[in-house]
Amino acid sequence: MRRRLLYGALLPVACSIAAAVAVQAQQDLRSAMNARLDALANRVAWAAFVNRFPERFPPAASTSGDGVVHAEEEDFELGGRHFAVGIGYRQVLIRAPLARVRRMLSSPDLFKDLYGLDADATVGGLTGDRIEREHVREFRARILKRLPVLPDQDYMLRYSGSDDGPAWFQRVRLVEDLEGFALRANLQVLEPVNGGVVLRSISMLYPRDWLVRALTTQIRAVTRTELAKMNATERCAAENPAPRLTPAIAAACWAQASR
Fold it and tell me: Which residue in 248, 255, 234, 242 sits closest to 66, CA to CA?
């Protein structure tokens, strides 16, 4: 009886310690994901990475149509623990000036229509016009999207852009996942090429729920589909001959990409 009471008293403590360890482990993983992408956000490191992995990022000249999409898992080992992080790579050649594509990627007021979101992504009234006019280097966007198979996605991201020579780097960091679904990190890179710009992107995702992590095949399939649609809609919108990108153009491109 006394032993049973002792176990009953210790169980909440053990559960609390286990939960704290899990939270710290995910914080460490989040830092490791961001550090990995931060290290690539310069022209020298990025060029070396692209040259090292031609299957992920082939030469720009060989890219046609809606580009290349690749999804895989990578093991992150931290303090003896292993985390299977989903990583998506995408590349698309866009026949448009770099400044136009950069403006598109820095206009959260276009995101709802451009990416088929279920709510306006703008936070704090920071539209593409204000970001450009006021030379804002950092902004936030709320991403609310319903996807097949997976739980609803509702999270806040922080976007920051920087130039390194002719290349432009945009780091995207998770501020808060309002559904507690996943850890995320992203790097997008624009580089001018003959006749346009090549957009390359790395997206990292680690679902927090072990039940969701068990859906590896489904998550990878959804990831490929969504990345391919992003390539198509961004290419369509940026290459539109209209002098200014509008929500109507973005919406038409997303509809076309989703067929």
Answer: 234
How many angstroms separate the CA atoms of 162 and 130, rounded? 17
Percent of residues, the chain, with pLDDT higher than 90: 76
Interacting residues of 159 by C-beta distance below 8 A, sequence separation 6+: 106, 108, 138, 139, 140, 141, 170, 171, 172
Average pLDDT over residues 76-90: 94
Q: Taking 50 as the threshold, does the pLDDT of residue 16 lie above it?
A: no
Q: Which residues of 28-41 are buried (b: 16+ CB within 10 A; e: fewer)?
A: ebbebbbebbeebb
**42 vs 207: CA distance, rounded Å:** 28
DSSP 8-class letter at 36: H
Asked whether the beta carbons of 98 and 197 are under 8 A apart, the reply is yes
- pLDDT per position as a tens digit, 210-244: 767 777 788 888 889 999 999 999 999 999 999 99
3-state class (DSSP) for residue 207: strand
DSSP character at residue 61: G
CATH class of 2-257: alpha beta
